[in-house]
TrEMBL record:
It comes from the Bacteria. Signal peptide: none annotated. Residues 2-392 form the Beta-lactamase-related domain. It holds the Pfam family Beta-lactamase. SUPFAM superfamilies: beta-lactamase/transpeptidase-like. InterPro entries: Beta-lactam-related (IPR001466), Beta-lactam/transpept-like (IPR012338), Diverse_Enzym_Activities (IPR050789). This is CubicO group peptidase (Beta-lactamase class C family).
Length: 412
């Protein structure tokens, strides 16, 4: 396995890579390769944290569904009801936009498809992340808002087409704050990460050791983000922030810092019907040796493997998240089937129907996927690779996934 990964890294010029393999509720292999910080000579380990990009959306979807279970949201609620102001596509002003639309990228948001939309969206994001009193998301979404442009909206009707939207996840995070009364980063940490034993966070100031986070590199091996050099960035004073006004402060669409070991814990919770697996407390061995997590008493709906001790979501809620909500062709063929902030794919590993999510931002490629049929899963973070389009994913992802799958088959 190690030799196969090293060959892939050489072929694609990968700076750093971490990966983990799961089978029957256990992490059976995990390892880090290459560098997390070229300048300072820090190696990648299985515990190294990366900004995992759009895998973050799975946590947002999970949090939204927790609020559905709590009776504070319904999937077909109009988002305007929970935001406290009306949000409409100006090209189709009579059509309501629902929470389900945002979870399936069918809300007709269009924020990165025209120069005017991009300028408005990124100007809003820039101010949101750097000021002590970030603007309310209303300023981006309503016609009299300071950042509004009608170009944010596609010409087609709500629900008619798939258009990948990061802004939609920011709106969901804002709604999550409003119905829970908790700041987004704190909600995710308290209600998802801590119960699962994940050290992952949307707020880097939660981490005791900032060196846990890898620098992200582009294909030319130039730093793109998270070059902290051992020093936490100065925190923005958010004492004046009003919870529920702008959930995009901590980049819910892609700002989670997590290790592949963290991702396996989230993966197992989804694979085991929403249960919190007993394996959540057990870290894999950095040497790459097979690890078997301890067992505990299984509870209803826990699935196979380690059993569960509590749950994030009810089994029927997990089933609904994983059900196909949309089918088509999106993002150069990467997205052909979507659940509720869950990607369904048969393109990463031939013959395997997988559930999870991918990520691609600032030079890192990430993936967290599992098979229900064969009780297997994998997670990877690939940093600074040369990118080539494959069947649906990038070829380096397909090659890494195939190497991980081959290792898994050798253990079955």
């Amino acid at each position: 396995m190690e030799q196969a990964i090293q060959q892939i890294m050489t072929q694609y010029g990968v700076v750093g890579l971490a990966a983990a393999v799961v089978h029957q509720g256990h992490v059976i292999w995990s390892r880090g390769f290459g560098s997390a910080d070229l300048e300072r000579g820090v190696p990648v380990r299985a515990e190294t944290m990366f900004r995992v990009a759009s895998i973050s959306k799975v946590l947002v979807g999970t949090a939204v569904m927790q609020q559905v279970e709590a009776g504070k949201l319904q999937l077909d609620d109009e988002i305007s009801t929970h935001l406290g102001f009306e949000v409409r596509n100006p090209h189709h002003p009579r059509m309501p936009i629902t929470i389900r639309h945002l979870l399936t990228h069918t809300g007709s948001l269009h924020e990165e498809q025209t120069p005017a939309a991009e300028q408005a969206y990124y100007r809003f994001l820039g101010v949101t992340r750097t000021t002590s009193e970030p603007p309310a998301i209303r300023e981006l979404l309503v016609p009299d808002g300071a950042y509004y442009t009608s170009d944010l909206w596609a010409p087609w009707a709500v629900g008619e087409k798939f258009e990948y939207s990061n802004l939609g996840t920011g709106i969901l995070a804002t709604i999550l704050e409003r119905v829970s009364g908790e700041r987004f980063d704190r909600y995710i940490r308290q209600h998802i990460c801590e119960p699962l034993g994940m050290e992952a966070t949307f707020n880097v100031h939660d981490l005791e050791d900032i060196d846990r986070i890898s620098v992200l590199y582009n294909a030319e091996q130039e730093p793109s983000i998270d070059q902290f050099r051992g020093v936490k960035p100065e925190a923005v004073d958010l004492s004046g922030y009003r919870i529920g006004s702008n959930g995009m402060i901590f980049s819910p669409q892609g700002g989670l810092r997590a290790s592949v070991l963290d991702l396996t814990k989230l993966l197992l919770a989804h694979q085991q019907g929403g249960g919190i697996p007993c394996a959540a407390d057990r870290s894999a061995d950095q040497s790459g040796r097979d690890m078997m997590a301890p067992t505990c008493t299984a509870t209803a709906g826990g699935g196979t493997g380690t059993g569960v001790h509590g749950r994030l979501l009810k089994p029927e809620t997990i089933v609904e998240m994983h059900e196909e909500q949309w089918r088509g062709y999106g993002v150069n063929g990467l997205y052909k089937q979507k659940g509720l902030h869950v990607h369904i794919t048969e393109d990463l590993i031939a013959g395997e129907r997988l559930y999870g999510h991918a990520g691609d931002a600032y030079g890192v490629l990430t993936g967290m996927y599992f098979s229900k049929e064969h009780d297997l899963g994998l997670a990877y973070c690939i940093n600074g690779a040369h990118i080539e389009q494959g069947r649906a994913f990038n070829t380096v992802e397909e090659d890494v996934a195939q190497a991980l799958y081959a290792h898994l088959l050798s253990k079955m």
